[in-house]
From TrEMBL:
Name of this chain's protein: Polysaccharide deacetylase family protein
PROSITE patterns xref list: NODB
Ranges in coiled-coil conformation: none
This protein's GO CC annotations: membrane
Domain named NodB homology: residues: 64-245
Length: 264
């Protein structure tokens, strides 16, 4: 199946079902937090009732739909350039925004997000796997407020920086009512920085119905090889019959999950 979802993940009332050994305590300062660590001091009792977290990296659908996503902005130069291309090509996309950058650069997206969707990429692009439950909640909640205020729409999807799901990321997402969206294919800018046509071919040839594509609208200079070749990628995918949709639209087109009985 092309819909890849981790559902439930042992969450009970938005917390990991590990008994009462979950808390919002910060990790010990003398031990580096593990990518799979969970808070482990006092009982943790969530205030929300979001009973599970879904982690989606692609969607099971027979329709030739693809979601183009951009992380880490908005930032000057690159974000306007991406929006210009998307406007010219009449393409929808989802921007996973860093709250602090959005506040500083709100003018870059004013009046330009009507066809697009904004997702939550935390307040300061922190590695959530290394933070306490409380600090993860603060990162998500502060970005949520900024995105809702500036774009006029509340974000529905969380993408943790670096795609890391460890630590308190899942418990905080559950408490705040978020599901998590990562990706199924990403731009390989470093691999193809000197061969842009091959990058275009890589994306076009490896996109299938329900794919979520990861790009960035800020960062290292080599990422420009992808942004400067968005037009041939878009046109190449359209020539293959693909339609560009937001992440929420892609989720809405998902086929129902089929539950298979367990054979003893």
């Amino acid at each position: 199946m092309r819909r890849k979802v981790i559902k439930g993940l042992g969450f009970a009332a938005t917390g990991l079902a590990l008994g009462s050994g979950i808390s919002a305590a910060a990790p010990r300062r003398d031990v580096k937090a593990s990518a799979t660590a969970v808070p482990d001091a006092a009982p943790w009792r969530p205030s929300a009732t979001h009973g599970h977290v879904e982690v989606t990296w692609s969607v099971d659908t027979s329709q030739k739909l693809v979601a183009l996503t951009f992380d880490d902005g908005p930032m000057p130069k690159w974000t306007p350039m991406v929006l210009d291309v998307l406007d010219a090509e009449r393409v929808k996309a989802t921007f996973f925004m860093v709250g602090e950058r959005l506040v500083r650069n709100a003018r870059l997206v004013h009046g330009r997000m009507d066809r697009h969707e904004a997702g939550n990429h935390t307040w300061g692009h922190a590695d959530l796997a290394q933070l306490s439950h409380q600090d993860v909640c603060r990162q998500i909640h502060r970005a949520h407020a900024a995105i809702a205020t500036i774009t006029g729409r509340e974000p529905l999807h969380l993408r943790p920086p670096y795609g890391r799901l460890g630590g308190a990321t899942l418990s905080a997402a559950g408490q705040l009512g978020y599901d998590i969206t990562i990706w199924s294919i990403k731009m390989l800018e470093k691999t193809y920085r000197h061969d842009p046509p091959r990058l275009v071919d890589y994306i076009v040839e490896n996109t299938t119905p329900g794919t979520i594509v990861l790009a960035h609208d800020t960062g290292e200079p080599d990422r420009l090889v992808a942004l400067r070749n968005l037009v041939p990628m878009i046109r190449g995918l359209r020539a293959e019959g693909f339609e560009f949709v937001t992440v929420s639209e892609l989720m809405a087109a998902s086929a129902p999950l089929v539950t298979r009985p367990i054979t003893p």
